[in-house]
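Researcher: I've been going back and forth with a colleague about how Peptidase S53 domain-containing protein might be arranged in three dimensions. Neither of us has a model we trust, so I'd like an independent prediction. The organism is Thermosporothrix hazakensis, in case that matters for your notes. Sequence below.
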Amino acid sequence: MKRILRSSTFVFSILGVLLCSLVLTQGASAQTTNSRKHVTKVCGEVAPRYAHCMALRLEGGDIQTLAAGPQGLNPADLQSAYKLPSSTAGAGKTVAIVDAYDDPNAEQDLAVYRQQFGLPPCTTANGCFKKVDQNGGTNYPQPDSGWAGEIALDLDMVSAICPNCHILLVEADSAYMEDLGASVNTAVRLGAVAVSNSYGGSEYRQETTDEVTYFKHPGVAITVSTGDSGYGTAFPATSQYVTAVGGTSLKRASNSRGWTETAWNGAGSGCSKYVPKPSWQQDTGCNKRAIADVSAVADPYTGVSVYNTYGGNGWAVYGGTSASAPIIAAVYALAGNTSSITYGSYPYSHTGSLFDIVSGSNGSCSVKYLCTAGTGYDGPTGLGTPNGTGAF
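Model: Here is an independent structure prediction for Peptidase S53 domain-containing protein. You can compare it with whatever you and your colleague have in mind.
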């Protein structure tokens, strides 16, 4: 049955890529003055119990400039926007990235990104970087140019937020939830304090069993992207054992913070169909698990710099909640508090250390706060974005 599903997911993925070459992805923001620019999903849609990556790449405009050097938000921008420490915080902590398939250029592309922005080298040789298959070995899966873009984005965002962290890349055999989940378990077994998962798929009845098997890891921060298609839920973001990470649009401003943020209209949010409500969630419009919990920049039109050469042309601007999930995982590592946290509960008792995002929406819904940002908790941005590490 699994092989049949894998064959069907290939067909669905090809169809998704073809569709995305013709239309603007639903989650793309309209915040651009350059009509030649558009957004492409780097991974296609998939069959049930398979996941697609959430990375979005900004295309068009001045392609030569994009290829020649980095545009988009850089590490200093992100550290400034979220008031993060830039000293030795995170040293000795390991952040894991879980993705499907292999990026054969992962380490060399990561080296270019870190050198460009003056970050310390993170290599296999110096013990900072490690790449393993889903069982913890070196029998890597087949390469995939779409997921390679996701991997590059994830590695670069962890580097940007926590330059002193070690990075563990775990490559699943496929995008089947069983393989991705096994990779999460491997990441935890190999010592990660935080595990970022920038992927998701439609909810299904068996997810309440799968969330226990793969995502229930007390004392480890598991972050998951909420999605890039606007209002609506996805698993594993709906798991009660993870921190579900939504998305914002982030721009420089002449205010005291130096930045403004609004809810990104592509961020996923909503009320789970199957997962019970965790005790720390107190919102009253959803009697099951609500997403998101927290958020960070995800709008590709206010996106981040990424370097990718396997299926990419070097420097590009990326976005999606694929950016926000590894950002938050790295903030957890900076805080150094994961051994004492209970799943995604910690930010709920430390809201004073978050920027509350009070404007923007990701669609229409019958329970307004689940799709419209406002004071306090809301669906698209959760409790808000990092203001230092105190909420993590």
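Researcher: What would you highlight for our discussion?
Model: I'd start with this: The longest strand covers residues 243-252. After that, consider the following. Residues 2-22 form the longest helix (21 residues).
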